[in-house]
Structures are given as structure tokens and as C-alpha cells.
Amino acid sequence: MALTTRRRALTTLGAALAGAVVLPGSQAWAGSSHRGRRPLWNAHAHNDYEHPRPLFDALDHRFGSVEADVFLVGDQLLIGHDSSELDPTRTLESLYLDPLAAIVQGNHGSVYRGWRRPLQLLVDIKTEGSSTYLELDRHLRRCPHLFTRYDHGRIHRGPVTAVISGDRAARIPMEAQHERLAFYDGRLTDLGSTAPASFISLISDNWTQVFTWSGDGTFPAAERRKLYGITAAAHVQGQQVRFWATPDAAGPARDALWTELLAAGVDYLNTDDLAGLEAFLDSHPTA
Fold it and tell me: Which biological processes are named by the entry's GO terms (predicted)?
């Protein structure tokens, strides 16, 4: 299908269904069903594409952030955790960009109807970063009004904010752009650097390489101070914070760790258990 024809079809689809989205290979998702229920902005769907209904399962659980691993194969961005499991029908467009475009059209300019805060789309690059990002940039520019945009020092917020993670070579072409539709996922080594939040919007790192506590027993006071220091430093710069490799098995240890992360101001809780994190955050309404 030609690009302009596909855009026209998505626009017609969104307007006709008024919030209920049905795309080939997916089940219906109606954003209006969440009216009156706040999105869970702290919730990040780690390896979201591994769920039975990528994107839609996370939206059903009201998540504020989803993660997609991408491999550059030719000029296609294929979704998967490992190169051996790639499927040419599972592309960034088919699983994320096209559905999000239809949802935003149906919901009058937002992913969650009535909520203007953007959904975060974390794109984890698994192939060489520079070339993959340049192809990704071309894909994002097919839907320019879908994404938060950086334009010569100014940020124009859109329904979806794309953040680029994974292979660090992506940083080189990104920093050279004066106008882009994506932001960079930094590491703790970037905290306090000269790179502004208009470039590094998110600071992510491996919990187990920074902290020893896994939720059992008492959180060591020195580690708690370290965590609070990290979030404070990031927030002063206008950046958000996420840790991966946090304990994700249901139980008291996970709940204790999630509670400490929220108390410290960590912006995204990383999980593969969508229902578990939804239940936890619903029991912590001040999150």
C-alpha cells in the first residue's frame, strides 16, 4: 500500500471508529473505555512486544511507556529480542507506529482520550546504532504529527515521545540534528553532563550494577541516599529516571522495591508483569 494511501486509510479508520481501533493482526482497543481512569504514567512495559498483543495489552493496563527492540534488516525495522526470532511481518510500523497513529486519530490527538501527556515509546536499538537510527528517523518522519519534536532548541509536545536506547552509536547522528522526532536515553554516567534534557530526556541504568538491595530486608541507608541523589540530580536537569533489571517476581520483595522507587521519585517502574504493576500502582494513587 502506498504511504499516502495508508495514511488516508488510518485517518478514516480513526474518525469512523471514534476511539475503537482495529488493525490487521490485532484485536480491538477502545481508548474510551479508560475514561475516568487515570493512565499509569509510572508504568513501563519492558520488552512490550513479547506480550500476546503488543502495545494493546500495555494500553489495556494503562501503561505510560512501552519498549520495543528493533533490528535493521534492509530498510525494515523488525521487532524482536534476538535476531533468530525476527519475523518480517512484525515491524515497528505494524506493531507500534500504525496502531498509535490510528489510536491518536480516534482519540482526538492523544493516546489516552482526555489526557494530553505523551506516551513514551522507548526504542531499543539492537543493530549498529548510527545506521539503525538514521533509518528509524526516516520511519518516524512518515508520521511527524505523532511525535514530540525537537526543533532548534524548542520542544513541541506530541501524543507520543520516542526515546532511543540500545546501541550507543545512535548518539552521533542524533546530536548532529537540529530538528528531530526522538530523544536519547542516557546512562548514569551522563547525569550532570552538559547534554540538556532536550537531548537526554531519560536516564536509565541496570539496577543490579548500581545497588545491592533487591527488596529483601531493609534498604541500606547509604543506598537509599544514593537513589534519592540520582533522582534529584536528574529532575533538576528536567530528566526522568528508569532502572532495568529490578526484581520482577511477584511478592513482598518486589513490592518493597517498587515502593522505595516511587518514594525516591523514580519516574518509570520496569516490568514484564503488566497486571501486577497495574494493581500495585492502583494501590499507590499518589504515584
Answer: lipid metabolic process
Say which amino acid occupies 3: L
Give the phi and the psi of residue 243 in degrees, each rounded to 5: -120, 135
DSSP E strand boundaries for the chain: 20-21, 29-30, 40-45, 63-73, 76-79, 119-125, 149-151, 154-156, 160-166, 179-180, 183-186, 200-206, 240-244, 269-271
Dihedral pair phi/psi, residue 158, rounded to 5°: -120, 180
Closest among 166, 159, 161, 158 to 201, alpha carbons compared = 161
Query: Which one, of 275, 243, 273, lies nearest residue 260 by Cα?
Result: 243
DSSP per-residue letters across 213-268: --SSSPPPHHHHHHHHHHHHHHHHTT-EEEEES---SSSHHHHHHHHHHHHHT-SB
14-73 pLDDT tens trace: 444 334 555 544 445 555 455 568 999 999 999 999 999 999 999 999 999 999 999 999
Domains in the chain, ordered, with CATH?
39-282 (3.20.20.190)
Element (H, E) at 139: helix 129-140
pLDDT for 37 equals 86
CA dist 164 and 223 (Å) reads 28
Which phi and psi (to 5°) does residue 17 adopt?
A: -90, -15
Cα–Cα distance, 191 to 215 (Å, whole number): 25
Give the residue with greater pLDDT, 28 vs 286: 286
Q: Model confidence over 159-204: pLDDT tens digits? A: 999 999 999 999 999 999 999 999 999 999 999 999 999 999 999 9
